[in-house]
Amino acid sequence: MTIKMGDRVPEGILAEFIETATDTCAVGPNNFQVADLVKGKKIALFAVPGAFTPTCSAKHLPGYLALHDELKAKGVDEIWCVAVNDPFVMGAWGRDQGADGRVRMLADGSANWTRDLGLELDLTARGMGIRSQRYSAVLDDGVVTQLNVEEGGQFKVSDAQTLLEQVS
Known about the structure:
Blueprint: E1 13-18, E2 28-33, H1 34-38, E3 42-48, H2 54-66, H3 68-73, E4 78-83, H4 87-97, E5 104-107, H5 112-117, E6 120-123, E7 129-132, E8 135-140, E9 143-149, H6 160-166
Parallel strand pairs: 3-4, 4-5
Antiparallel strand pairs: 1-2, 1-5, 3-8, 6-7, 8-9
């Protein structure tokens, strides 16, 4: 079953590569419970089929980086990029794209959370295994208040400008 507007996101674990140690996070991959990450926050979430892939690197992530300040001004607490990649790859992609903490680069390495959302994409025939569909969403305290799932191979509704217009 695919998640829809009004649903609460499922429990799950996402990993993030932490560049600088803090009191609560060591340098390197750190696992986070989704329920803890969303609690009391408004999240602008977008998911991509893969880090370093053409549309994801040329348009999707750069759009959210460009509109970071506007999204924050509309009450977004965090912007997440989720992909079925490992946290090392997501960290490297974030460094390459200059995410600099403006977008949290979250890894769903085994696609468990993506499957629980019902938004997996089987790219096995293309040598990529199970990945995420391309989509965007607004999560308000863990509840999906906006959801934009792309048709196969498209990039028309999950862009940052569309989500910015939907944030209330």
